[in-house]
Design goal:
Shape: elongated
Radius of gyration: 25 Å
Number of helices: 10
Number of strands: 8
Strand content: 15-25%
Structural class: alpha/beta
Helix content: 40-55%
Largest sheet: 8 strands, mixed
Order of helices and strands: EHEHEHEHEHEHHEHHHE
Strand order of the largest sheet: 7-5-6-4-1-2-3-8
Length: about 325
C-alpha cells in the first residue's frame, strides 16, 4: 500500500504564489508515485488567498483548505493543518516558494530510512537582508546554547517532515504560545536533517514582522527554560550584596568623621536599582501572562470557512 503524504501550508496574503506552488507540487508528488493531499490554512488573509484555495480545491480532490477566523500566526496555522491532515507523514511548507517543493524528495528518503523528524536546514538564504539572517542566527543560538535544544539546526529550518507518530503526539499539546520547532525538538523522537537553499520570494512581501519575531523569541524562551527567573535571583543577590557593602562603606566613613557627600551617587544607585526592579517585573510578567493565557483554555484557532472534502480524495496518486 502506497504511503499517504500530507503537505501542510500556512498562507497569508499568498494569492499570487499558491497557483505556482500547486503546479510545482503536483509535478513533484506525481513523479513519486505516492498518495498525497495538500492541506492549506489561510491565516485570515486580506487578499483573495482563500478564493484561490477554493478554485484549486474545486478542480483537484487532493487539495483542501481552511480559513482561520482571525490572524493567528504561522505556527498556529500550521498546527491547525497538522490537526486536520491524514497522511502517514506530513511536510510543512511555506506558500511563498522560498521552500522548493523538490525538497520533499530527500525528506521522504530520510523518512523511509527510519527518521521520524527530518529537518530541512537552511544551507543558504537567497534574497534576504543581512539583518534578517543575523537575527535568525541569534535566535537559533539562543535556542541551542541558552535554552538547551541542541538538536535544532543552527541555521534554522522552516521546512520539515513529521512522521504520523510525531503528529499524533504533537496533537496532545494544547499550548497557545509556542514555537513549533522548539516543541518538536523537545519532544524527541528519531531526528535527522538535510540541507537546502532557501530561495527568494516569488511574489509579495513577508508578513514576518519584527514584532512577531520578538514574540517568538519570548515565547520560545519562556516555554522551555526558567533561566531568566534564575538569573534574576542571581542578579538580585549580587545587587543586594553590593548594597550591603556600600552601606558598610558609608557607615565606616561616617564613624570616622568623614561622611560621604553628594546626591549624585545616591540618585545613580536609586535609578539603577529601580531599573533592575522594573526589568525583573517585566520578566515575571511575561511568565505570569502566559500562565494566565493557558489557564483560560481558549481555542488556539477558530476555523471560519473550509472547502468541501471530496470523497475521492487520496484515492489516486496522480
Amino acid at each position: 500500500m502506497r504511503p499517504v503524504i500530507s503537505i501542510v501550508t500556512a498562507a497569508y496574503n499568498e494569492a499570487a504564489n499558491l497557483p505556482v506552488l500547486y503546479q510545482r507540487l503536483t509535478e513533484v508528488l506525481g513523479s513519486l508515485g505516492v498518495t498525497w493531499e495538500w492541506v492549506i490554512v489561510d491565516d485570515h488573509s486580506r487578499d483573495g488567498t482563500f478564493d484561490v484555495i477554493r478554485r484549486i480545491a474545486a478542480t483537484d480532490p487532493h487539495v483542501r483548505g481552511m480559513r482561520l477566523a482571525r490572524n493567528s500566526g504561522a505556527h498556529l496555522a500550521l498546527t491547525c493543518g497538522l490537526n486536520h491532515c491524514s497522511g502517514d507523514c506530513a511536510v510543512t511548507m511555506a506558500a511563498d516558494l522560498q521552500d522548493p517543493p523538490e525538497t520533499v524528495v530527500p525528506l521522504l528518503e530520510k523518512w523511509r530510512t527510519g527518521a521520524q523528524v527530518v529537518w530541512a536546514a537552511r544551507a543558504q538564504r537567497e534574497g534576504e537582508k543581512a539583518s534578517t539572517i543575523l537575527f535568525a542566527r541569534f535566535y537559533y543560538w539562543i535556542m541551542r546554547a541558552v535554552v538547551g535544544l541542541r538538536e535544532i539546526p543552527p541555521t534554522g529550518a522552516d521546512l520539515f517532515l513529521l512522521d504520523r507518530r510525531v503528529i499524533d503526539a504533537f496533537r496532545d499539546f494544547q499550548e497557545s504560545n509556542i514555537s513549533m520547532l522548539a516543541l518538536i525538538t523537545w519532544m524527541g523522537f528519531r531526528q535527522d536533517s538535510i540541507e537546502y537553499v532557501k530561495q527568494a520570494r516569488l511574489h509579495g512581501a513577508s508578513g514576518w514582522t519584527l514584532k512577531k519575531k520578538l514574540k517568538l523569541v519570548v515565547d520560545s524562551v519562556t516555554s522551555f527554560t526558567y533561566l531568566p527567573i534564575r538569573m534574576m535571583s542571581y542578579l538580585g543577590f549580587c545587587v543586594a550584596l553590593l548594597g550591603f557593602l556600600y552601606a558598610a562603606f558609608v557607615a565606616i566613613h561616617a564613624l570616622s568623621g568623614h561622611p560621604i557627600q553628594g546626591w549624585s551617587s545616591l540618585m545613580v544607585a536609586v535609578l539603577i536599582i529601580g531599573g533592575f526592579q522594573i526589568l525583573f517585573m517585566g520578566v515575571l510578567g511575561e511568565y505570569i501572562w502566559r500562565t494566565l493565557d493557558e489557564t483560560r483554555r481558549r481555542p488556539r484557532f477558530l476555523i471560519e470557512d473550509a472547502t468541501p472534502r471530496s470523497e475521492s480524495a487520496n484515492q489516486s496518486g496522480s
